[in-house]
Design goal:
By secondary structure, this protein is α/β, with parallel strands linked by helices. It contains 17 helices and 20 strands.
């Protein structure tokens, strides 16, 4: 028998969809309200002149968290969602001409690093062992459970992790730690880059974040059949199969309270009553837009924290193919510290930005016309604080084209058949991400994990939070884990 209790989900981002599935499996009546006419939030897609683009996240790791949702619903994941493991995780291009292939096989990767840079393969192995050690200490405590419940700290595995706290390297920066492992500046830069996976600065973020390479190197990187958007599409179909109802073009305008308890929500269609509300909207907008009438509930210290970085993305249909490029490619800045100084202190874009280039047509040929490629070209930029973005975008585009043309020894400009642009302003307007920040608050201090907003309100009964702006953080795996934590809190 279905439960008489109703759960209302605000936002059909990946965490909102996952929360809906988990609650429906528990027997709740679940309704999801989405402002856009499509699901997925940042994990969406679009087409332009015969080219298909995944609009947002392009790296898929830890697929077990997607598979788990199908298993909870009693289904075989591979019947609905398929993916392949990448043998080559990413290709790297340096200004000095160095080219480095990050192989999924650790031994092969270590040999590649030694051959291309002279850095001993043993140093890579030692570094990845340290990354794994941080993961083993932090995973079950910091990622899979709420940090805001006493119960978490009374578990024996939590106590053991606390006694090993010194080994997670929380009191020096990622960059300082990486310098202690490697002598070659190119490999230090290689591992510094992982700070960008949660929108942080490697010269300020704690070395605890050096756990991230383990997630990619040990668990692997994958490409979903159908592209990244197939993650969204398959999970929406799963949600609907277990009774979840989606309402698109239906933005929530208010969370309605009865005293200090949830009563329901207001949408453009009217009022909807429910027992539980789970907000997948950025925490800043959840309070300032949906709970604007309750200023005493606003956690000002959290809402005033530094935001993560944002992104500037050019979607280019390219009338050529490049054999030296793979699915994931990085073109490094010659001066990484200056680049991050511009992002975090100058609040502008460095004239030699590090470029991430994703080409899904390498694995899904029909994403581009024959003989062509779909280029997703992204650089890290500051969150929107009123900069002149039109001027910054014009300059960045010129610098990106110059850099790519130089390092690929081919003029890229005449190859661009069509273009679309995503910047911090429309990231905010399309996904309700405050200031266009991709990951909520930054992780630029050693206590960042504890300073993220909890997954359950301590002031309103029945109000919960999921997604990249709350615990445990941004990115597909952590968003899916936020939904798991919410489900367990509700249970």
């Amino acid at each position: 028998m279905p439960s008489s209790k109703k759960a209302l989900i605000i936002g059909a981002g990946i965490a909102g969809i996952a929360s809906a599935i988990r609650l429906a499996v528990k027997g709740y009546q679940v309704e999801v309200y989405e402002a856009n006419n499509y699901p997925g939030g940042k994990l969406s897609q679009f087409e332009q002149d015969g080219y298909r683009f995944d609009a947002g996240p392009s790296l898929f790791t830890m697929p077990q968290y997607v598979d788990e949702l199908f298993e909870l619903a009693g289904k075989n994941p591979s019947d609905y969602f398929r993916y392949q493991k990448l043998d080559t995780v990413c290709r790297y291009f340096y200004e000095d001409g160095t080219r480095l292939t990050a192989y999924a096989d650790v031994d092969k990767f270590g040999k590649e690093v030694q051959a291309q840079t002279g850095e001993p393969a043993m140093a890579v192995n030692q570094y990845l062992a340290n990354s794994r050690r941080i993961y083993d200490i932090t995973n079950h405590v910091f990622l899979e459970r709420s940090l805001h419940r006493l119960k978490t700290y009374l578990r024996w595995d939590t106590v053991k992790s606390i006694f090993r706290f010194g080994k997670i390297d929380a009191f020096r920066s990622m960059h300082k730690a990486n310098q202690s492992f490697f002598k070659d500046k190119r490999i230090v830069q290689f591992f510094d880059r992982y700070a960008t996976y949660n929108g942080s600065n490697p010269y300020a973020a704690p070395a605890t974040l050096n756990v991230i390479p383990h997630l990619e190197q040990h668990f692997g990187a994958y490409f979903p059949d159908g592209g990244m958007y197939s993650i969204t599409w398959c999970l929406v179909q799963l949600a609907e199969s277990v009774g979840v109802k989606f309402y698109y073009n239906n933005p929530v305008t208010e969370i309605i309270l009865n005293g200090r308890a949830i009563k329901g929500i207001s949408t453009k269609e009217g009022t909807v009553e429910g027992d539980i509300v789970v907000s997948n909207m950025d925490i800043w907008f959840t309070y300032y837009k949906l709970l604007s009438g309750y200023p005493k509930l606003h956690p000002q210290k959290i809402l005033n924290q530094e935001r993560s970085s944002s992104a500037l993305i050019f979607y280019w249909g390219i009338k050529a193919q490049f054999k030296e490029l793979d699915l994931h490619n990085i073109f490094f800045s010659a001066d990484y510290e200056s680049e991050f100084d511009h992002i975090w202190h100058e609040k502008d874009i460095y004239d030699d930005p590090t470029i991430y280039l994703n080409i899904s047509s390498k694995y899904k040929p029909d994403d581009a016309p024959e003989g062509c490629e779909n280029w997703f070209v992204m650089i890290n930029v500051p969150a929107n604080s009123g900069q002149n973005w039109d001027t910054l975008i014009t300059e960045a585009r010129k610098n990106i084209l110059s850099k790519l043309s130089r390092l690929l020894s081919k003029d890229i400009s005449p190859l661009i058949a069509n273009e679309n642009i995503l910047d911090p302003r429309n990231i905010e307007s399309r996904t309700s991400s405050y200031q266009g920040s991709l990951y909520g608050t930054s992780s630029n201090n050693q206590f960042a994990a504890f300073l993220r907003h909890a997954n359950k309100s301590s002031k309103v009964e029945g109000l919960y939070f999921c997604g990249g702006s709350v615990h445990p953080g941004g990115g597909i795996p952590l968003c899916l884990l936020s939904a798991k934590i919410v489900s367990e809190l509700i249970a």
